[in-house]
Amino acid sequence: MPSLDLTADNFERTVLDNEIVLVDFWASWCGPCRMFAPIYEEAAQANDDIVFGSVNTEEERGLSAAAQIQSIPTLMAFKKGTLVFSQAGALPAPALTELIGKVRELDIDAALAQQGDEATGDKAE
């Protein structure tokens, strides 16, 4: 499945309504973005159970600002609506494949429960 164009109108709904969403923040003038695009599209084709979205930072300045994008490309990964990865810079294909595997394996419910326990000072015994 090709990547989905994400905008201010559909970004939140897409992230919240899907198990795993990867988002590539890019611009047409960005050389590293153009180098990363085919790697990202190939991963999208190979992982049809994951939503791959793209945000054109030139067209979606407000969304890019809300996401605190400082440089591009920036790749974000969400699991069950929670941001679990954010990194600027183009990833090589093997690193993207590894990231996808780690996001799939992540038990987000357990991670959020542990984070909540740490915030309140509760410790599992």
Tell me about this structure.
The protein is of the alpha/beta class and 125 residues long. The protein has a single domain (4-120), classed as Glutaredoxin (3-Layer(aba) Sandwich). 44% of the residues lie in helices and 22% in strands. It has five helices and five strands; from the N terminus they run E-H-E-H-E-H-E-E-H-H. The chain has a five-stranded mixed sheet, with helices on both faces. The longest helix has 16 residues, at 31-46. It is globular, with a radius of gyration of 15 Å.
Describe the secondary-structure layout.
Elements: E1 4-5, H1 11-17, E2 20-26, H2 31-46, E3 51-56, H3 61-66, E4 74-79, E5 82-88, H4 93-105, H5 108-120
Parallel strand pairs: 1-3, 2-3
Antiparallel strand pairs: 2-4, 4-5
Strand content: 15-25%
- The appropriate CATH architecture is 3-Layer(aba) Sandwich
Looking at how many chains there are and whether they match, the oligomeric state comes to single chain
Number of strands: 5
Total helices: the number is 5
Portion of residues within helices: 40-55%
CATH top level is Alpha Beta
Backbone shape: globular
SSE series: EHEHEHEEHH
